[in-house]
Amino acid sequence: MSVGYRALESAALGRPSKRRRWTRRYGLATLGGGIIAIWVLIAITAPLLSPYLPDTVDVVNRLEPPSWTHWLGTDALGRDVLTRLLYGSRISLTTGFVVVLVSAAFGTLVGGIAAFARGRIEEIIMRVTDLVLCFPPIILALAIAAALGIGTTNTIIAMLVVWWPKFSRLARGLVIVQRSQEYVEAAHVVGLNPSRILMRHVLPNAVGPLIVLVTLDIGNAIITFAGLSFLGLGVVPPTPEWGSMVAEGRELVDQWWVASFPGLAILSVVLGFNFLGDGIRDWLDPKSRRR
Amino acid sequence: MSRTAHSTPIDAAPVLQVQGLKTHFFTDEGVVRAVDGISFSVAGGETLGIVGESGSGKSVAALSLVRLLDESCRIVAGEVRFQGRDVLAMTTEELRSLRGGGVAMVFQNPMTSLNPVLRIARQLVETMVVHQRYDVDAATVRSVNLLGRMGITAPGRAIRSYPHQFSGGMRQRVVIAMGMSNEPALLIADEPTTALDVTIQAQILELLRELNRDFATAIILISHDLGVIARVCARVVVMYAGEVVEEGPTEALLADPRHPYTWALINAVPRLDRHEPGARRLTTIGGTPPDPLNHPPGCRFAERCPFRIEQCARHPDLLDVGPGRKSRCWVAQAGGTLAGHRREASPAMAQSASTGFAQTHATLLARGERLLEVRGVTKHFPVPRQGFFEPHQVVHAVDGVDLDVAQGETVGIVGESGCGKSTLARLIARIHAPTAGSIVFAGQDISNASAATIRPLRRRMQMVFQDPYSSLNPRMTLGETLGEPLRFHGVTHGTAETAERIAEILELVGISPRAVRRYPHEFSGGQRQRISIARALAVRPDFIVADEPISALDVNIQAQIINLLVDLQERFGLTYLFIAHDLAVVRHISDRIVVLYLGKVMESAATDELFAAPLHPYTRHLISAVPIPDVAAERQRRNLPLTGEPPSAIEPPSGCRFRTRCPIAQPICTERDPALAVHHGRHEVACHFPGKFS
Fold it and tell me: For the domain B14-114+184-255, what is the CATH code?
């Protein structure tokens, strides 16, 4: 029965033509990749794209709505929103990338080792994880960042400390599922050493949900970083950064452009990573790749 | 007492009539014709078996009868009449009353067919109240009676339990009770015993027979196992590629099949009652069932058929070929017989005689050098504590097992699920470390050796696993899977040599070497199992632990894998530790058999001796529980029903572990644990009263 349904399921995904199949499978991923690529390009070339500087205060023209001179309007200090948005991509993207990728790599490895080693090592690793998890992340990051001193790097370090446990929790759960699979036992029988089994047999099969979490989490990291900036850590005020731009525009209900455009920028990055992540997950899975 | 299907008074009017039923799946790739024009009828109180391999459409057919189909699946033609009423024209409301009231269904997996968060009572009472034939109080009383009738001890207490407190067999009884609660005219059971142990299977089949006899409930029993069908059903329908290919009374059909597919099904399974010494290979047919998207225009079985004639290019109809018998085969319709081809049609048989490998293997076996020596090996798994102040508990998975395996020998290990046979295999392969005892392999104690010490021995000892779907890494190509052990053990050096060796092994197990770049999901279950065997063989081991290597496969594929294992053994002088729950298969392949029960060895003897004169009561019960696909043979066998279920391995019974189910238990069995002692020759048994039970 189950075989029949599997055939059906694969059939339902269809193959009307090779091109349509590719579009259906990787179309969104390409779109996502495109969005990310555009933002990265913008971050690199920001000074060339805008005639203004991100921190030029122009009190006369404060809170102007979008117009031909200021495409996305100006903020409370009369700074050009578009310019700040373009420059802001530098810090926002960097923090998002660095925090999530580094903590995902570290958390996955630690969680994987915990699940694979079992016994005392697992107990120690998981209790440390729980210890970090049981503090509200923003407050803990706040404390660490405050102790290290204000600044982008220190804030990123503080975020890394609070960010990895969720990955290690998820990775541990996924690895435990994989560990009891017969192909992992078969690898033991072959005599492979545990690190090789973990890297070659266990993690590649556990990676799907992790990629989804990573892509969802990049937006989350950008927003948290923004929160920390808003609280006075992270970036120092004149520096443009999306999160703090949203924060600045929060109470300006009539001047919607101040908060909306950086918000949309964050949204586009999050969506872009999501699409890309789905595509990567599919591409890594030989079952859907060869269909 | 005869155990075969016996005739109950059959009403003349059919309960169910199916005419030209076609159920198709509509997919983007095209129309999957899962059920393609089947017709049969079931008379009141009759027992009908539907048999076929996976993908033959038998389950979809069953679901179509009560219209329990998925969205993408539609009945496109035909007629289903239940007691004269047209099922296909029924409204949703009418269907609901039909499903619980007139027709009951029992599915394969008893673990998922009950709602885990509701008590048994609630689920049973609900079934009855919903059809408005009982009020809650009456339904509760009836539930207790029904559970008692289904053979559940202390039904008054059982009814207040949750499903997880029951074993699989017990749950299946509850599901059947639920089905029977509204006195249905027809019970459809789709592989009801496939997930159960053989002793529990015998109990459930007996229950179905009783229900049929006592309540005159008609039964449609769907199974891949002809033995199961033979025990319950008076008539059989054989399905292949969405069609009925043969229909007839069970006894006649099994004794004299009139369709080559039926013939192949019957001959692919080793028989418990008939063992020809020296005949180590089974009759198999090649090929695979046709693609359901694109059935061949002629006979759908023609491609695999050993009896093929020219006429088979045209599609045959299902026609009468004798009293009560129908066949969809040109040969049978022309009066040809298939029975005469028995056994002779196996090409592997002739091949085995001509090769010299069999002799070489026999000499190796005769030397009797000991390869594996297991002494008092024990494995206890800790159970998570129920509460902080609760004591630590352990599962006694394997408890003091002794086992010797000689070079070139095949030792079979049998027992019900939970008897510790898989754990024993994993201890020997050192996936687990034993709690106590010693395992000596090739003269070296590996019971507590470090991974580095064992690593060189790993080359000599490999393992084949049960589940062909999880035993291969889905993200590694065939070439990577096979290349890894080769390079790791330094068997081959460099890409070219590795590729050459991979091609060689693939050839050996019957997979095209061109497939090295493909991923596991692109292969069928049987092919995957061949790949699994290839992986084990890659490093040229001399000892292979096979943990239920065929139990997830269709019978014809099972036979192919058994033949492959036998071929490889003779060719390379391999030694097998073969673990299975299917006694017929174990008997067929093993030189010696060890019977396990709750982590202890009950009996150990040479295969023929064990089956000719079993000494332990458990062994006798186990043998008796295996259904034989031969009605006449079944009639002559003695029925030794084993009651109850294995006790918990957390708190095993004192003294002899089997005593709680043993019909000849005496007070001494509670007090003293019988040691495994030599009875005569190499026949060992752990019983205070060996051979006393008859």
Answer: 3.40.50.300
Summarised one tens digit per residue, pLDDT across range B599-644 is 999 999 999 899 888 999 999 988 888 888 888 887 777 777 777 7
- pTM reported for the whole predicted model: 0.80
Contact A11/B28, CB-based, under 8 Å?
yes
Give me the pLDDT at residue A256, please. Answer: 82
Residues β-bridged to residue B237: B50, B247
> Model confidence over B100-135: pLDDT tens digits?
788 988 887 777 788 888 888 888 888 888 877 788
Reading across the β-sheet that carries B592-597, which strands appear in turn? B461-464, B543-547, B575-579, B410-414, B592-597, B600-606, B683-685, B677-680
Tell me which chain A residue has its CA closest to the CA of residue B523: A287
- Global ipTM: 0.77
A287–B474 CB contact, under 8 Å? yes
Question: Using the 8-state DSSP alphabet, how is residue A110 labeled?
Answer: H
Q: Which residue of A has its CA nearest to B60?
A: A1
Which CATH superfamily is A87-289 part of?
MetI-like (1.10.3720.10)
> pLDDT tens digit string along A55-109?
777 777 777 777 777 777 777 777 888 888 888 888 888 888 899 999 999 999 9
Residue A3 has pLDDT above 80, yes or no: no
Residue B236 to chain A, least CA–CA distance (Å) = 20
- What value does the CA radius of gyration of chain A take, rounded to a whole number of Å? 23
Give A124-132's long-range contacts (Cβ < 8 A, gap of 24+).
Answer: A125/A168, A126/A168, A126/A172, A129/A165, A129/A168, A129/A169, A130/A165, A132/A161, A132/A162, A132/A164, A132/A165
Average pLDDT of the residues in A112-120 = 85
CB-CB neighbors (< 8 A) of A1 in chain B: 54, 59-60, 108
Domain boundaries, chain A: 87-289
B544 CB near a chain A CB, below 8 Å? no
Query: In chain A, which residue's Cα lies nearest the Cα of B456?
Result: A191
Q: Which two tokens stand for residue B602?
A: 């009950």
Residues 6+ apart with CB under 8 A from B552: B466, B467, B468, B469, B525
To the nearest whole number, what is the mean pLDDT of chain B? Answer: 85
Given an 8 Å threshold on Cβ–Cβ distance, is B431 in contact with A190?
Answer: no
Which residues of chain B make contact with A187, given a CB cutoff of 8 A? 473, 484
Are B29 and A189 inside 8 Å of each other by CB? no
Distance from CA of A12 to the nearest CA of B (A): 5
Q: In the A/B pair of chains, how many CB contacts fall below 8 A?
A: 108
> What average pLDDT does the segment B534-563 reach?
88
CA distance B653 to A264: 68
Tens of pLDDT, residues A164-210: 999 999 999 998 888 888 899 889 888 888 888 888 888 888 888 88
The C-alpha angle with vertex B556 and arms to B554 and B560, in degrees rounded to 5, equals 110
The closest CB to that of A8, out of B25, B431, B488, belongs to B25
Instruction: Pick the residue of A189, A199, A290, A291 with the most B CBs within 10 A to test the interface with B by mutation.
Output: A189
Longest CA pairwise span in chain B (Å): 77
Query: What is the model's pLDDT at position A170?
Result: 92
- Of A182, A193, A285, which to mutate for an interface test with B (greatest number of B Cβ within 10 Å)? A182
DSSP B98: I
Predicted pLDDT at B355: 56
The partner residues of B16 in beta bridges, in order of sequence, read: B42, B82
| Overall average pLDDT of the B495-499 stretch | 90
Run of H or E including A277: helix A257-284
